[in-house]
Amino acid sequence: MSWDVYSYLNYVSLFSLLAVPVCTYIAILKYRMYDIDRIINRTLVYGSLTIILVALHFCGVVLLQRLFVFLTGQQSTLANVASTLLIAALFTPLRRRIQGFIDRCFYRNKYDARTTLEGFSAQSGHARR
Q1: pLDDT of the residue at 129
Q2: Are 97 and 83 in contact (CB under 8 A)?
Q3: Has residue 5 got a pLDDT over 80?
Q4: How far is 107 from 129, CA to CA, in rounded Å?
Q5: What percent of the residues of the chain are helix, what percent strand, and what percent coil, each to the nearest 5?
Q6: Which side of the chain, N or C, has fewer Cβ within a 10 Å radius?
Q7: Main-chain dihedrals φ then ψ at residue 74, nearest 5 degrees
Q8: Where are the domains of the chain?
Q9: Top-confidence residue, 84 or 32
Q10: DSSP code at position 74
Q11: What's the whole-model pTM score?
């Protein structure tokens, strides 16, 4: 590959990296997406959830595969199936915990308002009885 082609590819990759934030900025201004905190919140929640679930799946497959090799002397696809079922079962509770953690850390006003409303509705529910 000649240096001209390498230089051209380098400029294209640099331009494409710079184009993403510029296009995002233009989209926010054009479509008045000033309420971008919701997108940031979802990105934080689902990004960290994905990282945690991938790590759990990988560790689960490795550990279960070693367990099957220790018990039976051969590998089994059951390790992958069991790890996938574990991830499916953990998705919703883990998402709720991560959402609560991020709300407490970064969106304190929203979290305080939610807990105040929940407390008020619990008190009014007891008063009606």
Answers
A1: 52
A2: no
A3: no
A4: 34
A5: 90, 0, 10
A6: C
A7: -145, 160
A8: 1-34, 37-128
A9: 84
A10: S
A11: 0.59
Tokens 């105040």 belong to residue:
116
Find, among 129, 62, 66, 55, the residue nearest to 94 by Cα.
55
Confidence of residue 10 (pLDDT cuts 50, 70, 90): confident
User: If you search the block for the tokens 């184009």, which residue do you land on?
Assistant: 19
- For residue 87, which amino acid is it? I
Q: Report DSSP letters for 29-73, one per residue.
A: HHTT---THHHHHHHHHHHHHHHHHHHHHHHHHHHHHHHHHHHHS
DSSP result, 88-113:
HHHHHHHHHHHHHHHHHHH-HHHHHH
Tokens of 13: 């990759």
Q: What is the pLDDT of residues 76-123, one digit of tens each?
A: 888 889 999 999 999 999 999 999 998 888 877 766 666 777 777 777
Structure token pair of residue 62: 């490795």
Residue 104's closest CA among 19, 63, 45?
Answer: 45
Find tokens 């001209």 and name the residue: 4
